[in-house]
Amino acid sequence: MLRLLLFRILLVSTLSLALILSGCQEQAAPTAPAVRPPAEVGVVTMTPEVLVLSSELSGRTAPCRIAEVRPQVGGIIQKRLFREGATVRAGEALYQIDPALYMASVASAEASLARAEANLVPAKLKAERYAGLLESRAVSPQDHDDAQAALKLAEAEVAAAKAAVESARIQLNYTTITAPISGRIGRSSVTAGALVSVGQATALATIQQLDPIFVDVTRSSSEMLQLKRQIASGTLKTDASGAAKVTLSFEDGSPYAEVGKLKFSEVSVSQSTGMVTLRTEFPNPKQMLLPGMFVRATLEEGVNETALLVPQRGVSRAPDGSAMVMLVDAEEKVAVRPIKVLRTIGENWLVQEGLNPGDRVIVEGLQKARPGSVVKALTFGKVTAQP
């Protein structure tokens, strides 16, 4: 009986120990690790687009024509015939110089002409008469030659007298000082009663033609060289006329309504600044632009018909300063690609080399993208927040 009891106790203990060991083994058995989904990244697909390239340059306005009003004869100013700041036309009378002295010169020259013409009549008759008498040998050849010489001398004196009359009349006309060009006239430096002379240092007034008006801007020679290379290679295309369009904004940032055009660029580079001067022309019918104003001109350089723009947030810099982007390749893996950029266009970089149409550039979730890792590419802006 006692043996049977001990056997039962031993059996229960053995079974209990087996159950305990089985439970421990089950608890110690490793569980399969959970599979994490690929990280989501936002991408922008490179698509060629037509882009008008432009540069914003600072400059100043200048009149297209400017003329200083100066006296061509001396005398006393009798009156001023214009209103300062007004618009005058070419040939319009501006000042009147006392003409009395010049009127007397005209009268004297006319009297000299009358005397020369009176002397011409007998000299002409004598020459004609001697020509007829020479045939009958009534006069000597010497007398005939003297008569012909006297006639030519009388004709020369008449011609000189006529020139003197014309010169005197020109001097008389110069007593009325007229506008050499049309435009806006500034303030007058003299008043009635002032004595003026030929060659004086101070101009009487200045006339400036303001419609159209020039805007002179400057840009670096390196930019000019790069622009010419792009046009030569066909990257940029210009219109048939080659006259680039230009828009303008005032110093306060407000736009100017009229559109201008590029006239020419200077043929030399400034040795002190390395800049080239460009001259643009703008219509100025309302004369909103005045000479000497500071403005900003936006110059259209050309059209890039296959431009690739990548957001600035997707471009990083290597230690040497070169630009690079991270792409999602055909195997949905992250790849690093070095690129070359030309300039910023708004919030984007204009790509010169390194990217092709269809490339998917990562611009969102860069901190989760590792070169060679598999990612899930979503359109930029549709990436969901992940823990």
What does this protein look like?
With 387 residues, the chain is α+β, with helices and mostly antiparallel strands. It has four domains: 41-51 and 307-379, Beta Barrel (conserved putative lor/sdh protein from methanococcus maripaludis s2 fold), CATH 2.40.420; 53-63 and 207-305, Efflux pump adaptor protein, beta barrel domain (Elongation Factor Tu (Ef-tu), domain 3), CATH 2.40.30; 71-98 and 179-202, OB fold (Dihydrolipoamide Acetyltransferase, E2P) (Beta Barrel), CATH 2.40.50; 99-174, Helix hairpin bin (Helix Hairpins), CATH 1.10.287.470. It is 28% helix and 35% strand. Strands 2-9-12-11-10-13 form a six-stranded antiparallel β-barrel. A five-stranded antiparallel β-sheet has the order 14-18-17-16-15, with no helix packed on it. α2 (100-135) packs antiparallel against α3 (141-173). The model has no long low-confidence stretch (mean pLDDT 84).
